[in-house]
Write a structure and sequence with these properties.
Blueprint: E1 2-7, H1 14-28, E2 32-38, H2 42-50, E3 54-57, H3 64-78, E4 82-85, H4 88-99, E5 105-110, H5 120-126, E6 131-136, H6 139-146, E7 155-157, H7 177-181, E8 189-194, H8 203-215, E9 220-225, H9 231-240, E10 247-251, H10 256-259, E11 265-268, H11 277-284, E12 289-292, E13 308-310, H12 315-327, H13 329-342, H14 348-364
Parallel strand pairs: 1-2, 1-4, 2-3, 4-5, 5-6, 6-7, 8-9, 8-11, 9-10, 11-12, 12-13
Length: 365
């Protein structure tokens, strides 16, 4: 089986890591993988480092027709059977190459729950007959896609997966990065979130929850781990709430496997999500989770079983759930044990197995 993956982005984020995991696992199943990536991108460097056959293209919109012609020839030369498009821009390039005569079926990954665009080309490409399956990262994403396109039967759920091996080195007993780096004394509870500081992650509700926990007398330090466009606005809101000494903005950290086990609680107040792999990472690190019931999170966090859920923009409920976990050791241990089992359904191996089954189904039909 010969599969070409289109990786359109310049930087390396969660979507690129998922493509890398998928290629790695598919190689174990004797699948030949090829990549079409952006010139000068992080994924191009990844392909070079790991010896993955690839073609580097321009993804500038005026040059997409030319890139589509180059991609068509690459598909033909290498006998590619399926083209897996991993983003909206990759989708556009894949459809253009198919229209130009590329003889390979199209598979689309959809990782966000946002509505599809309303312009005519968006409507066309999401309903394009050459797209044989749309792999949705969560059931909520699948439901949104089914409601948005003419043939909803194309849409199937294939959850993202994580690599459990990277979380095996650190545990609650030997993780000390946060306390050492930020000079935190013993006796403080550590609560944190790992996500971009942008609109949809709703750090304002996170800070409102922190305020209520502080009012309840909880002695804690809180970590906003990430960066983003709203960073200065969120920091200003923390100061307005009198939380400047309680909340630590770390910026982006690349040692999440060391940081998460040190947290007493993972708290996310996001408004919209596809799946949110940070929750799975917390599961793998045996860190209990309190989260909003946004997007695909309830597919991982079962309230009172694998974690605690609250409605979006509900700081009072979130604070109550946090205190329940922190003040009830038996509940905490039950959540951790159940989450440790739940995360086994969301590994990179499971993602690859389910994706490969879709590939085989499309090729057989």
């Amino acid at each position: 089986m010969r599969i070409l993956h289109i990786a359109s982005e310049k930087t390396w984020r969660g979507g690129e890591q998922q493509i890398a995991y998928l290629i790695e696992e598919l190689q174990q199943q004797q699948v030949y993988n090829y990549v079409a990536c952006r010139s000068g991108s992080a994924f191009e460097a990844y392909c070079k480092q790991h010896g993955i056959p690839h073609i580097s293209l321009s993804f500038a919109k005026p040059l997409l027709p030319l890139s589509a012609l180059r991609l068509k020839q690459y598909i033909k030369t290498n006998g590619v059977q399926l083209v897996h498009m991993h983003s909206s821009l990759a989708h556009t390039l894949g459809v253009l190459a198919h229209l130009a005569g590329a003889r390979a079926g199209l598979i689309l990954s959809r990782r966000v729950e946002f509505s599809i665009g309303t312009n005519p080309f968006s409507t066309f490409k999401y309903n394009y007959s050459g797209v044989k399956r749309i792999l949705c990262v969560a059931d909520n994403v699948r439901r949104a896609m089914v409601a948005s396109i003419a043939d909803g039967s194309k849409c199937v759920t294939v959850h993202s997966g994580i690599d459990l091996n990277i979380f095996s080195r650190y545990n609650r007993q030997n993780a000390s990065f946060l306390r050492i780096t930020y000079n935190i004394e013993e006796g403080y509870t550590l609560i944190g979130n790992v996500s971009a500081l942008d609109k949809h992650k709703d750090y304002f509700t996170f800070l409102d929850t922190v305020y209520l926990l502080k009012q309840n007398g909880l002695k804690a330090k809180y970590f906003a781990i990430g960066s983003g466009s709203l960073e200065q606005e969120i920091k200003a809101y923390a100061s307005k709430r009198g939380l400047q000494d309680d909340v630590i903005f770390t910026g982006f950290l690349n040692n999440v496997s060391e940081v998460l086990p040190e947290l007493d609680l993972f708290l996310t107040t996001t408004l919209k999500e596809g799946l949110m792999n940070s929750v799975l990472n917390a599961f793998a690190c045996r860190t209990p989770v309190v989260a909003t019931s946004a997007g695909g999170i309830p597919e991982m966090v079962i309230d009172g079983v694998t974690g605690m859920l609250a409605p979006i923009k509900s700081p009072e409920v979130l604070a109550h759930k946090c205190l329940q976990v922190l003040q009830n050791p038996r509940l905490r241990e039950q959540l951790i044990e159940n989450a440790s089992l739940k995360v086994l359904e969301f590994t990179k191996q499971q993602t690859a197995i389910k994706t490969l089954a879709v590939y085989k189904d499309v090729l057989s039909s």
